[in-house]
Amino acid sequence: MLSASWMKKVVSTSFALLLTILAARAQDPELKNTTAPVIKTQDTTIKRLIEEVQRITDNDKQNSNAIQALLQGKEIDNITKYELIKNNIINASETYYLLNKKIIDLKSRTTTNNLDVFITSLNNPESKALGFSLSDRIVELVEKIILKNKGEKGEKNSKIVESTKSIINSPIFQSFTSLTPPLAIANSVMNFLHSVSVNNKQINQKSLQEFEKELNKYVVYYTALNDANQKFEYGLNFNKDQLSLLQDNLFDHLSFTATALKFPTPQRGNQTLSQTMNDYFFNFTKEKVVDYFNQLEAKYSKGGKRIDYESLLRENSSLKEVNNQLEDLVLQTKRFENLYNEYFTLLDSYYTKVNNSLKIAQDNGLADKSIIDAKQAEFRNLKTEAVAEIQASINIKELYNNTEKIKYRYRIF
Fold first, then answer.
1. What is the CA radius of gyration of the chain?
2. Is the N or C terminus of the chain more exposed, i.e. has fewer CB atoms within 10 Å?
């Protein structure tokens, strides 16, 4: 601006000087006869000065426009920041609810009732799911191999049969909560027979070895089935532990967001974490979060004026922190998806192992091929139904679609 003023003064002075010279020439006879020099306008200092003045004026105008654009851009930028934060937090409120619901659902899963009944029947020593009862088969083997079909002859033989039945029907085995009653029964009967053989000359080592060989055909089948059950149970427990850890992290993240929005925070108390979270989502809802932002906008648009976004963001800086922490919430949903997929991997592995145990039963002559084929087909159908039921109940796509609405990659500073 100083340069422009100075230039104008120079131009004015130069014009005044030029007029003075022309006037003097008009009054002086000698000067009248003098031929005036031709001034090449494009080369004169005056023209250059005029052009410089115009350039400075244009620059001033451009600078003024640029400043106005920056001021307007700053306002638009604040609006954009606020809208991003608002939409992200509203969508996150729904994500919190969905993720917690699906964690609880998956934690409660073992398989399904029908599948559990099927496996229990295979492992029950009294069951004839494969066409035989382990309890009956053990008694038959004792009578046939150990007593040479003389179980009814002699008091000692009768006692051996009755003791064998007593071991099989022991409340100890019937009260087992684990999946190993058949193996425990087989082991107990073998120990009993070995101890009896010490004082009973009719029970020789050859008979014991033959009995053990036949009994082992059943033991191998139940061992394979038990191995499948144990590994599936171990995998489920590990999966549940990881889900519990994920729910703990979700609780912490939700508490942080609730504090920033001035909502009451969830309190555990004496309840389980699942109960606490379920109760909390009666108050922390998407609708109430939307209402929070409506009230915030009304507060910063007093008198019906436009919203003062700059003041809103400055005085509620915690909203920026919530927005910038949403990447962790998204990562938690990804972790849940991994645990969800791991569950079905466990189920596939379990299915394979149970089928292998059934194949062992067939190879060892414990059951006919037709029965084994029918059981494998039944197991396949039950597994397919279980997968469909769990997928429909949890609906992982619902969580995925909602999480996609959170633009967590855009951080606000």
1. 45
2. C
Residue with tokens 């990562």: 331
Q: Which of 116, 113, 102 is nearest to 338 (CA)?
A: 102
Q: In this structure, are residues 358 and 377 in contact, taking their beta carbons and an 8 Å threshold?
A: no
pTM for the structure as a whole:
0.74
**All residues at 6 or more sequence positions from 140 whose CB lies less than 8 Å from its CB, including other chains:** none
Question: Nearest CA to 134 among 199, 187, 182, 67?
Answer: 182
Give the whole-angstrom CA distance, residue 69 versus residue 57: 19
Q: Give the whole-angstrom CA distance, residue 344 versus residue 121.
A: 23
Amino acid identity of 305?
K
Q: pLDDT tens digits for 204-235?
A: 889 999 999 999 999 999 999 999 988 998 99
- Are the C-beta atoms of 266 and 277 separated by less than 8 Å? yes
Residue 380, pLDDT > 60, answer yes
Which string of DSSP letters, residue by residue, matches 6-61? HHHHHHHHHHHHHHHHHHHHHH-HHHHTSPPPPP-GGGSHHHHHHHHHHHHHHHHH
State how far the Cα of 147 lies from the Cα of 153, in Å rounded to an integer: 9
DSSP H or E segment with residue 161: helix 155-168
**At 255, which helix (H) or strand (E)?**
helix 205-260
CA separation for the pair 346, 326 (Å, rounded): 31
> 154 is written with which tokens?
């002699």
Task: Give residue-wise pLDDT tens across range 320-359.
Answer: 999 999 999 999 999 999 999 999 999 999 999 999 999 9
What type of residue is 124? N
Mutual orientation of helices 134-141 and 205-260 as an angle, nearest 10°? 160
With contact defined as beta carbons under 8 Å apart, do 218 and 168 qualify?
no
DSSP assignment letter at 304: G
First to last CA, the chain: 36
Mean pLDDT of all residues in 144-151: 78
Please determine, for residue 302, whether its predicted confidence score (pLDDT) is greater than 90: no
d(CA 196, CA 163): 11
